[in-house]
């Protein structure tokens, strides 16, 4: 079993080097000195991607394996066997948990407590986006807002008014909320994992023309 450590790149590299019974002197070469590797392992020096890949080659570890082990140590990858979990470094475990929570409502009715859950998550992601201004965080926030909006009519009291005037109005509001995602998808000529991921997750709120294109 791999010992649990603070999952910095340097600390994980040091652990893997030790597991492979390699000394600093054995790993060092003209590209990376003993002193540099030691500083990297202690978190005292940053490292370029090319130098890191070379170091990993020196200890017979692939880049993919290294990143997976690092994310496993930090909790991004669940330790239990989850058949629904697909590993990708762009996938945030915290957001996957929100998606898992949302999935249950395809077979059961939500409660006011469930609505409160999404309201709380929306506030959490608003704070995150205020900090990092990252496109992925923004799209995650939009998803959570969509989940919450589509739940309102299912949890409100009968005497409470609906925020939607009609089904058409509901779709218009959802599509307006998802507009930043649509604009982004139209701006990217060649889609990669990121674009396909968000197209799949937000398809329900995308205009028909976008889906057909």
Automatic annotation (TrEMBL):
This is Helix-turn-helix domain protein. The lineage of its organism: Bacteria, Bacillati, Bacillota, Bacilli, Lactobacillales. One of its GO terms (molecular function) is DNA binding. Residues 13-66 form the HTH cro/C1-type domain. It comes from the Bacteria. InterPro entries: Cro/C1-type_HTH, HTH-type_regulator_Rgg, Lambda_DNA-bd_dom_sf. PANTHER family: TRANSCRIPTIONAL REGULATOR, TRANSCRIPTIONAL REGULATOR-RELATED.
């Amino acid at each position: 079993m791999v010992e649990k450590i603070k999952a910095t790149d340097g600390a994980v590299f040091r652990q893997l080097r030790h597991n492979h019974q390699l000394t600093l002197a054995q790993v060092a070469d003209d590209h990376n000195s003993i002193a540099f590797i030691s500083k990297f392992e202690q978190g005292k020096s940053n490292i370029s991607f090319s130098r890191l890949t070379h170091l990993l080659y020196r200890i017979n570890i692939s880049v993919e394996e290294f990143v997976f082990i690092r994310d496993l140590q930090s909790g991004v990858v669940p330790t239990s066997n989850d058949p629904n979990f697909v590993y990708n470094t762009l996938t945030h475990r915290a957001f996957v948990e929100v998606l898992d929570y949302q999935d249950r409502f395809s077979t059961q009715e939500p409660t006011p407590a469930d609505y409160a859950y999404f309201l709380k998550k929306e506030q959490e992601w608003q704070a995150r986006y205020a900090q990092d201004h990252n496109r992925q965080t923004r799209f995650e926030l939009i998803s959570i807002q969509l989940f919450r909006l589509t739940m309102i009519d299912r949890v409100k009291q009968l005497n409470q008014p609906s925020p939607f005037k009609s089904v058409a109005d509901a779709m218009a509001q959802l599509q307006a909320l998802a507009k930043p995602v649509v604009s982004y998808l139209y701006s990217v000529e060649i889609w990669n994992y990121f674009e396909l991921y968000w197209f799949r997750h937000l398809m329900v709120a995308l205009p028909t023309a976008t889906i057909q294109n």
